[in-house]
Amino acid sequence: MAMRPLLLLPEIVLFLGGLAVLVSGSFLPRTRQWVTRVIAAAALVTAAALAVVDLPGPAQPAMEGTFTVDTATGVARIVAALGTLIVLALAADEIAGSPRESETYALLLFATTGTLVLAGADDLLVVTVGFLLASIPLYGLIGIARTPRGAEAAMKTYLLGALFGILLLVGVTLLYGVSATTSYTGLTDRLAEAPQGVVAAGVVAVLGGLMFKAGGVPGHYWVPDAAEGAGGTVAAFLTTVPKIGAMVAAYRLIAILPDTLAWPLLVAVLAVASMTLGNLAAYWQTDPRRLLGWSTVSQVGYLLVPVSVAGRSDLALPSLLLYLAGYTVTNLAAFAVTTAFPDRRGLDSYRGMGRARPWLGASLVVALLGLVGTPPTVIFAGKLTTTAAAWDGGLAWLAVLVFVNTVISLFYYLRWIAPVYGRGEPPARTLPGAFVPAAWSATTAVVTAGLSVALGIGAGALWGLFSV
Amino acid sequence: MLSLIVFLPLAAALALLALPRLGDAAARWTWVVVAATDLALVVAAWLRYETPTAGRLAFEEQAAWIPGVNSSYHLGVDGLSLPLIAMTAVIFLACAIFALRETDRPRLQAALFLFLQSVSMGLFVAADLILFFVFFDLSIVGMYFVIAGWGHGNAARSAMKFFLYTFLGSLALLVGFIGLYIAADPHTFDMVELAEQTPLAGSSLAGGLVLAAILVGLAVKTPTVPFHTWLPPAHTDAPAIGSAVLAGVLLKMGTYGFVRIAMPMLPEAWRDWAWVIIVVGIVSVVYGALVALAQTNFKRMVAYTSVNHMGYIVLAVGAAGLVAGDTSLARSVAVTGAVTQMVSHGLITGALFLLAGVLQDRAATYDMDSYGGLAGPAPRFAAFFAIGAFASLGLPGLSGFIAEFQIFTGSIAAAPVTAVALVGILLTAALFLRALQRIFTGETRGRSVGFTDLRAAEVWSVGPLLVLSLLIGVFPRPLLAVIEPAAEVAVELVGR
Q1: Which of A161, A181, B287, B318 is deepest in the core (most CB within 10 A)?
Q2: How does residue B450 score in pLDDT terms, banded at 50, 70 and 90?
Q3: Chain centre distance of CA A349
Q4: CA of B73 to nearest chain A CA: how many angstroms apart?
């Protein structure tokens, strides 16, 4: 076992990039803060490129076995870095020239680093570090807009984060207490012999912490508020990128647990709770971002499906990674449409958008139907393979519930699509009919929606990469 | 060859979208030309077609797609699908011609229908379950936008109902597909392999559940009683060409699934549940006809006769599962009749819905009592309408007769009790004659006054559909020669 810090180069690049953004931002006049955005983008591209170079290799331990660089880590690095890069494009419209521009970029980079630490963690203590590194910048990001709603959301997130952070630490302590190790390599055997009640309590607590990070039941309460109250850039980020690390971390944890308790059932129950609650709560939302916020809660449910059969089906890991990649692209496309029209905060105010802006309208349709899992978007391939994995792992009922939930979810996405192609003008009390989208967001929406379809058609190639 | 047939319309649709400067007239004619080219390609394929060996497909194309789950881009045709792709190409061409007078966003409409054509063609030639599902789902998305974008009346609500209902069906179907995939060894989504393997043979519970999921999915799309409630509002509020495609092509996706997927892949479960399927078929036949009889809205009436006509198909494929003694010849006649009925219903109902569109265009109502004596001002319309109505009620000499005659010959030989469904024929005859009477006979009154007769574009879109129905009715041999071998194979597969 050795440190081999070079294996963590993408994370290091991101963190140093964040520091560079922070420092240079404080010396640059407000009109030239865009330079920090370029620095941040360069750091993200470099990190993704380094991850691509590392990707085809076998699993390699780093930091004395507490961190693993394997396919899952590599994919998480690429997806998270590129996801944050897309978020930066949205920021170019929203926060360019705003008072806290460079700070926002720095916090985005730190939070991304935290997510990647979570994704590669092979040790409970590193999970804790990743959790904190991913969470603390997030609190700042949510409140950075300085609006009343933003403040409320930040407070809510902070309190919940503190609670679940403590829960996570309790879980780690319990597991350490019965196994005398925090390293995943030793946990499997020792937990098998440990008192099962304590193991169960510990695992549930750690999973709870990860669910806060992912925004799934039971740690989901902050997601809709933060999605609605924070700025568009931040909302797009926090509903997308932190999930990548949290889900991979949850997968690694479930995969190493001994067969002594019904872990698949526990995760499956969480999955069903998450998808059902998210879908039902999204039903009558009128703010598109809040609607998307609840939709992401339900998406965490779908993401938990392959986690529930971690280690029991060969399809589980590749399907999880495929779903994560697809979800990132598709969800960002939907958010990009909302940041293209930042003042339109009601579903009704999108009336006639499809006719005025055909490309943007089409992007929104692709994104929303993509979130439903309509072929040929990439989430369809994800949903297909995750449910096949669940069925393969002996949870056929979970596969059926996924599809029942998919039908339920269709309704609220259609509630948004319907006015976009409906006749008439938006109601007078909102905004008049002129749809003038923000340039960067509009381009991003079209590109990401196109990517969602392209990745769906090319899902075979992705699968080949992910199942190495 | 098949890839070209499938993706040519899609390429044209993208081209139309990418060229916003294109004038409306150019867009309309582009659509006609592309649809005609696609039909020419299908005809060329038909001429080169040779019946493949049992269990195989003609014009096969295969390329890796998602090898991780053994799903490939696999296309092929046989006697079950070739008539359907020909029928699809004909209907879309008829719609393109009919829409030459369209003024509401013609470029977008042309692109959308070309997209739908690609999707429909793709579904009928798909030889991989996931590919099939992709096209199945996209057909729903495309039709949603057709109804929501160009419909009338309560279009948004009908479109939403249509989408939710049929999407539910499609996901039930997907559950069934995943069940087949998991049960197959090695796991695969390939239709040809699955039909060879017959996974789940020997496990009647799992087989029954998977078949139930697939049947529900297909029954919603077909639709059969009790899953038909989305159909009347969708048809009533859809534009004329949307209804024609919905009834002519999209409904066939359900019935095609029965013969292509459910029967050959789950033969044992199919035989076990044959009686349930037969009963659903008979109920659809009688109920559809009875409800149609009570309608005063012409379009709703035709929509319900679709439930009735699809019922015959379900009845026939159900009867094909009653494996006993020496009825295999009869059962293969029933399946041949079912496939013939798919083609025939597509042509006839497509024509009837286009004619209903003429009513809406001239007088803005489908209410039959608002008309009267229409034969006077619109003799051509009356003649076309009468031919369509007689074809639909199964008059000899038209395609409906050939189909229904075979269905009943085969089904009654396999199970005499299916003769109950003959009531349906009587009822449809009554309701069509009554509709003819209400709209066309008597004194010219109400909305009939000043009704403009069919225009050239309408004659040239509806006319060929009716001529084809007549041709099939008089010379059924070329069509049956293609279908019969495939029907025999299907019956043989379900008897395993």
Answers
A1: B318
A2: confident
A3: 27
A4: 11
Number of helices (H), then strands (E), belonging to chain A: the values are: 20, 2
Best probe of the B interface among A314, A384, A423, by most B CBs < 10 A, is: A384
Section A18-22 average pLDDT: 95
Average pLDDT over residues B432-436: 93
Of A374, A396, A399, the CB nearest to B137: A374
Q: Residue A225, Cβ neighbours under 10 Å: how many? A: 21
pLDDT given at position A425: 60
Q: How many CB pairs under 8 A join A and B?
A: 80
Domains of chain B: total: 1
Considering Cα of A396, then A397, then A399, then A403, what sign does the dihedral take?
A: positive
Give me chain A's average pLDDT, please: 92
Segment A44-57, tens digit of pLDDT: 999 999 999 888 77
Task: Report how many domains make up chain A.
Answer: 1
Confirm whether the ipTM is greater than 0.90. Answer: no
Long-range contacts of A396-399 (CB under 8 A, 24+ apart): A396/B179, A396/B182, A398/A268, A398/A271, A398/A272, A398/A305, A398/A308, A399/A305, A399/B175, A399/B178
pLDDT tens, position by position, B323-339? 877 788 899 999 999 99
Query: Is residue B438 within a helix (H) or strand (E), and if so which, with residue range?
Result: helix B422-440
Contact criterion met (CB below 8 Å) for A6 and A75? no
Contacts of A418 in chain B (CB under 8 A): 148, 156, 160
Q: Average pLDDT in the B248-265 region? A: 94
Q: For residue A436, count CB atoms less than 10 angstroms from its CB and return exposed for 0-12, middle for 13-18, buried for 19 or more.
A: exposed
H or E element at residue B299: helix B298-319
Nearest CA among A181, A203, A200 for reference residue A190? A181
Contacts of A410 in chain B (CB under 8 A): 163-164, 167
A79 falls within a domain: no
**How many CB atoms neighbour CB A146 within 10 A?**
11
Residues of A with CB below 8 A from B6's CB? none
Which of these, B50, B153, B90, B77, lies nearest to B351 by C-alpha position? B90
| Domain span holding position B8 | 2-494
Alpha-carbon separation of residue A192 from A187, A250, A312, B248 (angstroms): 8, 19, 17, 61
| Residues 6+ positions from B356 with CB-CB distance below 8 Å | B240, B243, B298, B299, B302, B366
pLDDT in tens, A387-446: 999 999 999 999 999 999 999 999 999 999 988 887 766 655 455 557 889 999 999 999
Range of the domain at A401: 269-468
Closest CA to B41 of B76, B85, B96: B85
In A259-357, where does DSSP find H-type helix? 263-282, 288-308, 316-340, 353-356
Q: Which residues of B179-193 are buried (b: 16+ CB within 10 A; e: fewer)?
A: bbbbbbeebbbbbbb
Cα–Cα distance measured from residue A388 to residue A383, given in angstroms and rounded to the nearest whole number: 8
Query: Does the pLDDT value for residue B118 go beyond 70?
Result: yes
Q: Which of A421, A305, A270 has its CA nearest to residue A360?
A: A421
Residue A111 lies in a domain: no
Task: Indicate if the pLDDT at residue A331 is higher than 80.
Answer: yes
Is residue A125 one of the residues assigned to a domain? no
Does A242 fall in a domain? no
**Cβ of A463 and B164 within 8 Å?**
no
Q: Is A249 exposed, middle or buried (0-12, 13-18, 19+ CB in 10 A)?
A: buried
